[in-house]
């Protein structure tokens, strides 16, 4: 059985986040990875040094090429950069009836560089969220989406997850990596109940691309036919292993280790 997974995201020349992180994750989790590149970034462990968005024509042509021929079992979206790209991507995913869509609503890189135009947030709400089977905001992204600041506890996270669910996402995984607590709990809300994914915070500065890696691991699970809860559980194990064995590369925030999960499974 071949499981087809597609990432629609930005390229990270440093290899730790974006398209590169997604393809490595897809491969490690036994899926066939494909990509639609929305923007090039000149990026390393020290930050984003340039962003070069692709034309709408280039984005649409890549999508059409993949979807009209190979098809997909699941899609992950990452950096989409502007409202026009968001609209083109949403339109095409709708046209081909793709349902297993994981939306990582990437907005700002860890170094503070904008990866989404602020005026495109409305397009995320209007076009992308209603299409998503799972959306994986971190806390700052959740605050922008709901237009409220101050998410600072598990109770606040649960409230925010409900509000994002009400915007049309079928499942919300609100990531706790940005809370300053000992434990980093992610909260999954499916409209009925909450599932908690607590993990002891790992002391490392090398967390470049954690969000991309986690979301693409969920997409890989969905491509293989796992439920959202099962896919999130595996993705959590995958990202935890990757952070525990993160790589001291470059002078800044190094990438996580995408091979760690598979090597620990002994396969
Ligand atoms: N230090 C840590 N120890 C353990 N788990 C972590 C740590 N940092 C992040 N995580 C986990 O990694 C996953 C990604 O979360 P995070 O909040 O870092 O994403 P993000 O901010 O969107 O990442 P990115 O900056 O790559 O977009 C989540 O499951 C989160 O709980
Ligand atoms: C291309 C790209 N996508 C997403 C992120 C968020 O980590 C990043 N740093 N770079």
Automatic annotation (TrEMBL):
Kindly give the Gene3D superfamilies that the UniProt entry links to this protein.
Answer: 3.40.1190.20
Give the pathway listed in the UniProt entry for this protein.
Answer: Cofactor biosynthesis; thiamine diphosphate biosynthesis; 4-amino-2-methyl-5-diphosphomethylpyrimidine from 5-amino-1-(5-phospho-D-ribosyl)imidazole: step 3/3; Cofactor biosynthesis; thiamine diphosphate biosynthesis; 4-amino-2-methyl-5-diphosphomethylpyrimidine from 5-amino-1-(5-phospho-D-ribosyl)imidazole: step 2/3
Q: Where is the Pyridoxamine kinase/Phosphomethylpyrimidine kinase domain?
A: 12-257
Question: Source species, please?
Answer: Caldalkalibacillus horti
Name of the protein: Hydroxymethylpyrimidine/phosphomethylpyrimidine kinase
Membrane-spanning residues: none
Q: Give the first-level EC class, as a single word.
A: transferase
Q: Recall the GO molecular function terms of this protein's record.
A: hydroxymethylpyrimidine kinase activity; phosphomethylpyrimidine kinase activity
Keyword annotations from UniProtKB, A to Z:
Kinase, Thiamine biosynthesis, Transferase
- Which CDD domains does the annotation name? HMPP_kinase (cd01169)
